[in-house]
């Protein structure tokens, strides 16, 4: 018997403006994370490990690099017959001209033909910029068992932070009775993780109606979910326990990286039964030089370290030269920290060269310093005038 | 353009990496923290734009097959071709299991190839070489066979039983003999040959008719009078991994050279395992070492090569050692001058100490 098919749709079109220069040239889901990964490796690997073989990635902003990356679907083992990773940009339409995705729901609406063609029974809507490991197969099972029209993954958050999230108010059986976006006085601590499973037939009808509604924002949280609730459809909350992080700001991206070296880390990347797959760049193993001092660090292939590393994460191909002191810092791909440079609480962007003896960041800073090429050259010039 | 068929040859009889090759051909042994030894030769070939490659193996093929199947050596997956070949015919005596016998058993695949040249090289010599440069030299000299060699000054204590080349005028090879370690300075054959595919087929037939014990190098030596054989000097780093000691030394020597030898223009391809980065915990003390991904290090590591997924507990001290993937070195274990094979767990023996010339070997899956 042919299995009922769930197609995953990853929303990867966000601009990620709060990541500043990190997303100037690359879409947020393609931003590097955790030494050797890109953020989008997490939802894609989760799909692969959950036996989902068809994944659409909805792209629009600075997507050249992201498109070419996801096109290599063999990375996640998704190059299978009847499956694959599909890059879905907004359509150019006869009537409306050059298209953009107006909202999260519109992104799916514009691709109903894709979902029709894939013969989807269920649609899994995911966000391309969250770090977590989750078995979507179990969530689907829950969706089927509860006979739901839609299932929304929720995470228990501290009550005092609940007003930052979309909050689901549920009955005693975790059936959702109310949804409140960033409520001032939250009634529940169950936050939406932006992970939805929809029974496709119903969703299709609602999206078609939403498309025609001139007052709609074409957004799942603002429009589709409230309409589902108003019409008395069966919406279920699916409780997720485990590590989950939205890496929307420099500080939260830094934090998520630091979580990997924390003693209480709950994001286990070493579990062979749930690997996070990523593109291999054939870098050599990491070289630790004769002068290196490494105390609590996460370091990957292609790195060359001869300096002092404390509580830091080094990404593929980064180099730290002799005498440099790198503390509480994330050094991204191919960046180079020159001799004797001192870094505290920084995120050093890809390929930035920090000159010898430059001091960046501070131990007591409130926020994390994003070290860009521009910042480094400005600082180097400033020194000349001193 | 002239096309080459790449042949990764069997290791000759003088290659014996004690202990290690009980489990796999030496060429399939973990190497330098992330590779298998044969990745260097196959990458030489694919980086030289050779996309039809035959890999010969004798016995215990599992690791080689698994590895080759799982590796993208950067060859077009439709156009390119990797064949793993072995002698189909059972041999009554290992003495008869020569490279010639294996080529003969697979002669149809050599005949079928559309390449006009073959480059034949075993993988126990580790070096970086663009075979197009060697082919250019071959064509310039206008000879029948070109043999790659290196002028070495340590023939006394390395390259045992390798072929020594003797030269006449114009770099023509006039004699070949075995290195029995009598002299320091010798021209050592790297057993890498370029010749036309037709000549290669002829030599296989000639060898079979002359002696069933002949290897390719024997029939080449036997043909020096009839054929014009030239030497092509390799000037870069070469390591000949023909013993446990040589394997150990190659790891420690190449550790310092890897960054220079390997570049974006000349990557070494290997199977990706999607292993997470290495976690250095508080108390870790690592210097002068090459470390694979997926390790968890709490102890001390000095001048060593550590493979993937190795766990080194607090108080453990590893010095001048080669630790293969997925091993566990427990608390307070001291290891010096040793080769630890895959999946070994070392807990109870608190001190393992070899010498630089005779490293200690701990077997695969051993628990001590």
N-end to C-end Cα span of chain B:
56 Å
How many helix segments of chain A? Answer: 9
Distance between the termini of chain A: 76 Å
Question: What's the β-strand tally of chain A?
Answer: 26
Question: What can you tell me about this protein's structure?
Answer:
- The complex is a heterodimer of chains A (386) and B (368).
- Chain A has helices at residues 41-49, 64-70, 104-109, 112-117, 136-145, 200-212, 220-230, 250-259, 373-385; strands at residues 6-11, 32-33, 37-38, 54-58, 84-88, 122-127, 130-132, 150-156, 166-170, 176-181, 190-199, 235-240, 244-246, 286-288, 293-299, 304-305, 308-314, 319-320, 325-327, 330-331, 336-337, 342-344, 346-348, 353-354, 359-360, 369-371.
- In chain A, 22% of the residues lie in helices and 28% in strands.
- Chain A is built from nine helices and 26 strands.
- The mean pLDDT of chain A is 91.
- By secondary structure, chain A is α/β, with parallel strands linked by helices.
- Chain A is elongated, with a radius of gyration of 22 Å.
- In chain A, strand 9 and strand 10 (176-181) form a beta hairpin.
- In chain A, 49% of the residues are buried.
- Chain A starts with 5 loop residues before the first strand and ends with a helix.
- Chain B has 368 residues and is of the alpha/beta class.
- Chain B has two domains: 4-260, Spore Coat Polysaccharide Biosynthesis Protein SpsA, Chain A; 279-362, UDP N-Acetylglucosamine Acyltransferase, domain 1.
- Chain B is built from eight helices and 28 strands.
- In chain B, the strands form seven sheets. In chain B, strands 5-4-1-6-11-8-12 form a seven-stranded mixed beta sheet, with helices on both faces. In chain B, strands 14-17-20-23-26 form a five-stranded parallel beta sheet, with no helix packed on it.
- In chain B, helix 3 packs across helix 6 (197-210) and helix 6 crosses helix 7 (216-222).
- Chain B starts with a strand and ends in a 6-residue tail after the last strand.
- Chains A and B meet through strand 14, strand 15 and strand 17 of A and helix 8, strand 14, strand 15 and strand 16 of B.
- Strand 14 of chain A pairs antiparallel with strand 16 (289-291) of chain B.
């Amino acid at each position: 018997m042919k299995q009922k098919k769930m197609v995953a749709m990853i929303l990867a079109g966000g601009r990620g403006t709060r990541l500043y220069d990190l997303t100037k040239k690359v879409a947020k889901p393609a931003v590097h994370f955790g030494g050797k990964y890109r953020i989008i490796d997490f939802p894609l690997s989760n799909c692969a490990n959950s036996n989902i073989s068809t994944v659409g990635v909805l792209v629009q902003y600075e997507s050249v690099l992201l498109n070419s990356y996801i096109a290599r679907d063999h990375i996640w083992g998704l190059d299978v017959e009847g499956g694959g990773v599909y890059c879905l940009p907004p359509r150019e339409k006869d009537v409306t001209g050059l298209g953009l995705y107006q909202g999260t729901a519109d992104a799916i609406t514009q691709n109903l033909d894709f979902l029709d063609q894939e013969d989807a029974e269920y649609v899994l809507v995911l966000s391309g910029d969250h770090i977590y490991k989750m078995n979507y197969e179990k969530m689907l099972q829950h969706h089927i068992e509860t006979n739901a029209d839609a299932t929304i993954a929720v995470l228990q958050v501290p009550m005092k932070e609940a007003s930052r999230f979309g909050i689901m108010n549920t009955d005693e059986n975790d059936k959702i009775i109310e949804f409140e976006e960033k409520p001032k006085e939250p009634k529940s601590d169950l936050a939406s993780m932006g992970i939805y499973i929809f029974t496709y037939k119903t969703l299709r009808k609602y999206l078609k109606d939403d498309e025609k509604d001139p007052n709609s924002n074409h957004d799942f949280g603002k429009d589709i979910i409230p309409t589902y609730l108003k019409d008395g459809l069966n919406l279920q909350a699916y409780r997720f326990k485990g590590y989950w992080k939205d890496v929307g700001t420099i500080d939260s991206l830094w934090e998520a990286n630091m979580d990997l070296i924390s003693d209480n880390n709950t994001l286990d990347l070493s579990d062979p039964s749930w690997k996070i797959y990523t593109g291999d760049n054939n870098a050599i193993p990491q070289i630790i030089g004769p002068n290196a001092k490494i105390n609590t660090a996460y370091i990957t292939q292609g790195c060359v370290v001869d300096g002092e590393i404390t509580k830091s994460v080094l990404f593929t191909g980064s180099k730290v030269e002799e005498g440099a002191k790198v503390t509480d810092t994330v050094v991204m791909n191919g960046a180079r920290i020159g001799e004797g440079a001192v870094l505290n609480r920084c995120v050093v962007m890809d390929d930035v060269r920090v000159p010898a003896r430059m001091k960046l960041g501070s131990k007591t800073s409130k926020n994390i310093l994003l070290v860009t090429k521009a910042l480094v050259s400005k600082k180097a010039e400033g020194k000349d005038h001193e | 353009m002239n096309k080459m068929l790449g042949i990764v040859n069997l290791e000759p009889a003088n290659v014996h990496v004690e202990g290690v090759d009980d489990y796999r051909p030496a060429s399939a042994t973990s190497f330098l923290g992330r590779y298998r030894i044969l990745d260097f030769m196959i990458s030489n070939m694919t980086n030289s734009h050779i996309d039809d490659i035959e890999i010969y193996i004798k016995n215990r093929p599992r690791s080689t097959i698994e590895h080759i199947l799982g590796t993208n050596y950067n060859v077009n997956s439709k156009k390119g071709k990797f064949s793993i070949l072995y002698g189909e015919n059972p041999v009554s005596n290992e003495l008869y299991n020569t490279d010639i016998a294996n080529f003969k058993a697979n002669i149809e695949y050599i005949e079928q190839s559309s390449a006009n040249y073959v480059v034949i090289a075993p993988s126990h010599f580790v070096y970086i070489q663009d075979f197009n440069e060697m082919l250019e030299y071959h064509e310039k000299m206008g000879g029948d066979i070109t043999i790659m060699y290196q002028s070495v000054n340590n023939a006394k204590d390395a390259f045992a039983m390798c072929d020594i080349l003797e030269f006449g005028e114009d770099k023509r090879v006039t004699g070949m003999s075995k290195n029995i370690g009598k002299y320091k300075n010798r021209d050592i054959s790297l057993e890498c040959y370029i010749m036309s595919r037709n000549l290669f087929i002829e030599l296989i037939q000639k060898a079979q008719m002359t002696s069933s014990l002949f290897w390719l190098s024997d029939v080449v030596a036997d043909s020096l009078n009839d054929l014009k054989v030239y030497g092509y000097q390799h000037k870069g780093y070469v390591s000949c991994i023909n013993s446990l000691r040589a394997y150990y030394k190659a790891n420690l020597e190449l550790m310092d050279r890897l960054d220079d030898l390997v570049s974006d223009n000349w990557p070494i391809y290997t199977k990706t395992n999607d292993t997470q980065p290495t976690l250095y915990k508080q108390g870790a003390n690592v210097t002068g070492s090459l470390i694979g991904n997926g390790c968890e290090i709490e102890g001390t590591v000095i001048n060593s090569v550590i493979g993937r997924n190795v766990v080194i507990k607090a108080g453990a001290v590893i010095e001048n050692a080669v630790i293969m993937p997925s091993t566990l070195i427990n608390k307070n274990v001291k290891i010096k001058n040793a080769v630890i094979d895959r999946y070994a767990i070392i807990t109870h023996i608190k001190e393992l100490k070899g010498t630089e010339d005779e490293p200690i070997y701990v077997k695969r899956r051993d628990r001590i």
